[in-house]
Amino acid sequence: MTAKATTNTLTGAEAMVRMLEAHGVRHIFGLCGDTSLPFYDALHQLDHDIEHILTRDERSAAYMADGYARVTGRPGICEGPSGGGATYILPGLVEANESSIPILAITSDVGTRSRGHYPLTELDQEGLMRPLTKYNSVIQHADAIPDTVRTAFRKMTTGRPGSAHLGLPIDVQRGQADPETIWADPRHRTFPAYPTGPDPEAIAAAVDALLSADFPVVIVGGGVILAGGEADFLTFIETLDIAVATTISGQGTLPETHPNCIGVVGSNGGVPETREIVEAADLVVFIGCRAGSVTTELWRYPAKGTRIVHIDSDPEVIGASYPTEVGVVSDARLALQAIETELAGRADRKTFGGARAIEGPKARKWAAFDHLANSDATPIRPERVIATLRRVLDDDALIVGDPGTPCPYISAFYEVRTVGRTLWSNRAHGALGYALSASVGAAIGAPGRKVVALMGDGSFGFTCGELETVKRLGLPITFVVFSNAVYGWIKAGQKTAFGERYFSVDFDRTDHAAVAEAFGVKAWQVENPDDLQAALSAAIDHPGPSLVDIVSQPLHEAKAPVSEWIA
Ligand SMILES: Cc1ncc(C[n+]2csc(CCOP(=O)(O)OP(=O)(O)O)c2C)c(N)n1
Ligand SMILES: [Mg+2]
Question: Which residues hold their Cβ within 5 A of ligand 2, which is an ion?
């Protein structure tokens, strides 16, 4: 960065840089283009602490911003140029928006006066992004930049967090903005900002319902971790000795080693033993959870008719799928604190024997897994890979999994032993090719932590170009590829629901280790289960990026923890 002398005027591009700086932005993930040149020049010339991470695809830039936001608790920022850059950045914006993760995409745009004259890359960016983001604006004048950026950060970080998109036409970048208008509310540097608490009457009603139940079960989604409410959650659970199941995004709310935690439920990562607990409940408390198709196995568990208490910061999700006895609209942490206070004053407070009730099912779940995890069969069983990874990784490693083999297996069987978000998957759309990029964002957001990305070979094909970025940055990420030469998840759907009529799902095996080596990434290929632990350990201990290509059992032949292949 070369320092530019301070003047009493700012270009629009400079105002954008100053506004990001005012919001505490330290990293931007993105890729250059002609209409972005004034913005790049401002990033280059001004004196600031923002580092630009050059990516090889805007899709990756948005997923990196998502992974970064999840580990830092701060909005993730990505950028790309007009036209193709804007359309390629879109998948990450949707994924983050529906996962309540604040990311901001800035895409440059053609000049406002060239619109309608067929300039290259012209696109109705505002129309395109409107249904996909929480806030979206193509800025028309340089002097509107500060207000618009403040609005984007307010929208992203308050209420249910979400994504924002700002279009920045090239002439707006070149226009004039007033330096006096550059300021930010520091509370929007993190999320959730300005969390709002519950209606006391709703809390009293929720506690009444809970204390009238015989065997209540809590299903917790990502909302408690998002709200930083893990400690209050633990108090709530232990006060009542209540059984807890989590969604995939809820993993880490409570360690899975806690006696009250049965683990993940639902069609992806749930197993019959975890479902048993939900079936036994006469009342289910959903907390920070949408009660969507995967968690509820297509709204079958809990069964319709089960009494429901639902706590969420988004009023839209309450009652969306289940008749709900009590709804509480609140930040999860504040709701749990209010419940704690309410319970403290209740003479009818009781305990529900949750820990004892889950002991048997939990032991049976792990016994079935251990059997497969010790298998010497080839191709290597996914269970063996997960068990080996669990053995060689520290508890605070960050793990990102793609759809296909990784997501159900890590959800069901990678035992999370700590509190907080150490393991996640892209559960809104489940687009292939998320994990590699999200792991880059995580590695940059949490330097010094070990990061591991697990992907199918289908996902690898979507995203391997980004290995150059990883190598250039020297990030100590370990990539694990489940190599089965098939879009296995879809083949499993053909097997179970279409009479094994396999159609257009098989592809040739790629030598992923050779591809990685070509990018300068240290790689291992493993076919023999006896070599697995040594290869994974060596890869994890390697100081730079590493990849382990594992020839693994095709998903449609595996005993996968999946009850519904068609969501
Ligand atoms: C972008 C995108 N396209 C298509 C799908 C549909 N889909 C879900 S899982 C899957 C197969 C995954 O294959 P692979 O990554 O090889 O993992 P495997 O199931 O073989 O372990 C596909 C095509 C998707 N999730 N995302
Ligand atoms: Mg595959």
Answer: 456-458, 484, 486, 488
Q: Please tell me the CATH code under which domain 200-357 is placed.
A: 3.40.50.1220
| Rounded Cα distance, 533 and 390, in Å | 10
- What distance in angstroms lies between residue 497's CA and the mean position of ligand 2's atoms? 19
431 lines ligand 1 (CB under 6 A): yes
Ligand 1 closest atom vs CA 459 = 15
User: How far apart are alpha carbons 523 and 204 in whole angstroms?
Assistant: 57
Q: 302, 87, 117, 84: which is closest to 213 by C-alpha?
A: 302
| Residue 376, pLDDT above cutoff 50 | yes
d(CA 92, CA 179): 32
Task: Verify whether ligand 1 is closer than 6 Å to residue 404 (CB atom).
Answer: yes
- How far is ligand 1, taken at its centre, from the CA of residue 367, in Å? 29
Q: What is this structure's pTM?
A: 0.97
Tell me: the pLDDT tens digits for 489-531? 999 999 999 999 999 999 999 999 999 999 999 999 999 999 9
Question: In terms of DSSP bridges, do strands 176-177 and 10-11 run parallel, antiparallel, or are they unpaired?
Answer: antiparallel
C-alpha 458 to ligand 2 mean position (Å): 5
Tokens describing residue 76: 């993730």
Backbone angles phi, psi at 526, to 5 degrees: -125, 125
Ligand 1 centroid distance, CA of 64 (Å): 20
What is the CATH number assigned to the segment(s) 374-557?
3.40.50.970
CB of 424 sitting under 6 A from ligand 1: no
Q: Return the best residue to mutate from 489, 505, 507 for the ligand 1 pocket (most ligand atoms within 8 A of CB).
A: 489
Q: Which class for 103: exposed (0-12), middle (13-18), buried (19 or more C-beta within 10 A)? A: buried
Ligand 2 centre and the CA of 250: distance in Å?
Answer: 26
Hey, where are the domains in the chain?
Answer: 2-189, 200-357, 374-557
Q: What CATH number does the domain located at 2-189 have? A: 3.40.50.970
Closest atom, ligand 1, to C-alpha of 403: 9
Q: Tens digits of per-residue pLDDT, 240-281?
A: 999 999 999 999 999 999 999 999 999 999 999 999 999 999
The residues, ordered by sequence, that sit 6+ positions from 341 with a Cβ below 8 Å of its Cβ are none
Q: Do domains 200-357 and 374-557 have the same CATH topology?
A: yes
pLDDT tens across 153-201, in order?
999 999 999 999 999 999 999 999 999 999 999 999 999 999 999 999 9
Judge if the beta carbon of residue 85 lies within 6 A of ligand 1.
no
Instruction: Band the pLDDT of 2: cuts 50, 70, 90.
Output: very low
Q: Report how far ligand 2's centroid is from the alpha carbon of 482 (Å).
A: 7
